[in-house]
Design goal:
The chain has 256 residues and is an alpha/beta fold. The protein has 9 helices and 14 strands.
């Protein structure tokens, strides 16, 4: 699904709202703040010539595409730290009981038809914290190159865990240097038969890719930014080549 001009990438998620209670003796007050963890990934991809559109978590429910035609305008969709409910529950359905398209099924069909899909790890990716991301058993799970657990799948590694590259010949890893910096955690996933496991952490897959129908999908089990991807990782010279390779390959165009 390669189109003329820059490859268009829709990134959904990778944002949060923090509502904090400040208790001071008898008295308390609250503050609310908004945050994004996209800046490193955005810079890497835009530096490789990709055109990025970001839908933060609070906009996805209402604004993520609801038709195959709208999805087809993108070469790659990246899901990063966004639970399946946010994609499933359009405000028309949740607030007004109006039937709407199942966007998880749309994403599966998008890949089968030639689109690219990348899932990036996090607390609300794959199954996530307390299994609240809930992608296992959904149509998106059919398109991804990995099988997900049905329980909380986080592996916290505060001591750091280093990736081991298993397939140096895959186009995704062209130009990615050796010696990956340590990561501080990841989601435990299992590579499907026929998928290519390009890197592992411990005994678990970290980077898995496959072709599905006429499209391609990639799973990266750790984060694209803090906290699982610490400053040494996002500042690593291999960070930009890695993400350009992942998204470029998923787009059907090889490395970005």
């Amino acid at each position: 699904m390669i189109k003329p001009g820059p490859r268009r990438v829709l990134i959904a998620g990778e944002s949060w709202v923090m509502h904090t209670i400040h208790q001071k003796g008898f008295d308390h007050f609250t503050t609310t703040a908004y945050g994004e963890g996209l800046q490193w990934l955005r810079a890497a991809l835009e530096g490789g010539g990709f055109a990025i559109e970001h839908l933060p978590n609070h906009l996805v429910a209402a604004q993520f595409p609801t038709t195959a035609e709208a999805l087809a305008t993108y070469d790659v969709v990246v899901l990063s730290d966004i639970g399946s409910n946010t994609l499933l529950l359009h405000p028309d359905t949740f607030e007004r009981s109006v039937a709407m398209p199942n966007r998880l099924a749309l994403l599966r069909d998008y890949v089968v038809g030639g689109g690219g899909l990348v899932m990036v790890g996090g607390y609300l990716s794959f199954q996530g914290i307390d299994a609240k991301a809930r992608y296992a058993g959904t149509p998106v799970a059919d398109a991804l190159p990995v099988t997900m657990l049905t329980v909380d799948d986080r592996v916290e590694a505060p001591e750091g865990v280093r990736a081991v590259v298993r397939d140096h010949t895959h186009p995704i890893l062209n130009g990615v240097p050796e010696g990956w910096p340590a990561l501080l955690g990841y989601n435990r996933i299992v590579a499907k038969p026929g998928a290519a496991t390009l890197a592992t952490v411990g005994a678990d897959p970290l980077l898995v890719a496959w072709e599905h129908g006429r499209g391609r999908a990639v799973a990266f089990a750790s984060d694209c930014g803090p906290h699982w991807a610490p400053p040494a990782f996002v500042g690593w010279p291999g960070y930009a080549p890695l993400w350009r390779g992942i998204v470029g390959w998923a787009s059907g165009a090889g490395q970005g």
